[in-house]
């Protein structure tokens, strides 16, 4: 695995933690606040996501296509979202997470089966 790919995946993992909290944590903690409060706080958290995600995509684009970057992002999203959903939001584990993951395995196969640009 190349250094830019490792850095890209690492940054995307970190950025996705911020993104997941920005998108969903307000549901647990700010349900009694006006939506605008949740939106403004989420934007503040999302800033950190973008500060990691933009460099990740720029670094990754030196060796990967946009489609490959997107599929990596989706795999990372599900990889972060499932533990977040189970551990932080206390949602029950569903078999649907497995099926979604298997669909992403297929997506990874199709995006990476040819030569990288």
UniProtKB/TrEMBL annotation:
A Pfam family: DMT_6
InterPro entries, alphabetized: DUF486
Q: Which residues cross the membrane?
A: 6-27, 34-51, 71-88, 95-112
> Which residues fall in a coiled-coil region?
none
Which keywords has UniProt assigned to this entry?
Membrane, Transmembrane, Transmembrane helix
Q: What protein name does the entry list?
A: DMT family protein
